[in-house]
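Troubleshooting entry. Yesterday's outputs looked truncated, so today I'm pasting the complete records for two proteins to confirm everything comes through intact. If either block looks cut off, that's the bug. Protein one:
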Amino acid sequence: MPVQSHRRPELRASVVKLLETLVPAVRDGGEVPLLSIVESVAGDRLKPEVRKHLESRGNAVFRREGPAMAFLNEGPALRIPLKRFDLRVAARLSGEARLVDGGAELRFRGAETLSASKFLFSVRLEGIEATSSRIYVDMEGDSFDQVFELV
């Protein structure tokens, strides 16, 4: 199934701001607010109470594990109602990160990820690639992959 593409230039400023902390963290290690990462995936404005819950989860911590850069964030599991679906944040988020041209890619480990759910249907996020010109959201099974064009 083809990737769904959306023009979302209004998201560019927040993604560029995310990249200012994400790229150095992926390159050298460090921390990135989980709120910033979730905002890049959600593509919608988050309500103040949702932002507060995400802020309480703190930062994703990036550390070198052998040749790879790993990331980790732990805290209470969250369910975030959005316009078209609910975004679920697992109690433990983890995976590997790497630099890509103009940005960074995060690949999540199994169930230690975000998922989108609506009624009884749920699909997990496998990865995010964020650059200053687009966000590619790689969902489990490839049927729901999304590209947000930022320019």
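Protein two, checking that the full record survives here as well:
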Amino acid sequence: MGKTVLILGGGTGGVVAGNVLRKTLKKKHQVIIVDRNDYHYFQASYPFLMVNQRRPAQVVRRLEAVQRKGIEFRKADVIQVYPEQHLVETSAGMLGFDYLVISLGAEHHLESVPGQEAVAYNPYSFEGVCRLRHELWYFTGGNIVLFISNLPYTGVIAPYEIIFLIDAFFRERGLRQQVTLTLVTPEPSLLPLAGPKVGESLRRMLEQRQIRVLTQAKVLSLDPVKRHLMLDGGISIPGDLFIGIPSHWGPSVLCNSNLVDDSGWIEVDPHTMATRAKCVYAVGDATGIKLPITQAWGPKAGVFTHYQAEVVARNIASVIAKKSPDFRYTGKAAGVVMATGFGSGRVASVKYYARPYPRVALLRSTRIAYWTKIAFEKYWLNCWL
């Protein structure tokens, strides 16, 4: 008798898990992806969309395209998960499963910073990026402030890509001298996971581009009348255009389950991504992985979600085939690229499970790195969907 693998979420983790499962399982087994949206949004391209280097249609794909690969797609909202009963309540009815993969991502809560929802653009939202794209096109001068509301947040290199590409956008248009750029983060240093050497390298690069940087800055509110970003310590930053990376929370549909910790993130085994419930796994931004020794939050990014989903899918397929589930997630990623301009980027390699501290390398900016990033974008959108 065939098994049913239910996947919640059609983002990176859901699409990868679905593809790998469908390739490794026999046809009698059912693979189902559930998502509230009709479309898959390739969020790694949002910074390019923001600065008019992409059109909206270029960074989205219809999720029903997975059906050509033998994966079922159900458009529905997830209402509640009942892991012990092997049931998921959705707006389209109850769905049963033999194995469950949760890839719901993190929720954005703009209301956690008073004034943010009314004034700032959300660069992690497709609608927000499209509106920001329009605003930047007609922006001819003034103060642009990019701030990180809280920790942890997803897309660890995204804030730097955003500010670098905005810098390149106005340089290309000959307006850079009329625009001031400020990056505000609550982190103690830039890319703290990478260590002081990488952080200082990144800070020097930002300063060379005349981008002001404020670290250890806790955002309190955004005044919609005075248009000032209020920080602790009585610091006030004026702005004409605010871009706010929102506070990230774990999925609210899981808050009444036994799958989450006190902070709302799904607790998983850091190597298998198994949850507390039997046959239930979670990958990506919804999970709360702590680093060895330091117990700091592990980074949340699409590249890590991709590897986690592959491990989970291959282990589920192994168990169904009555083989040993020997695949392990190691916290490694190579070839990650941070875009630093139109035609330049920095390659990073990450080993965040390394002891005693994570190991991160960030190479100098090159054109090859940039085109590697573009090649991966095309590969992802054309091969996985």
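Both blocks look complete. Sanity check on protein two: The chain is about 25% helix and 25% strand.
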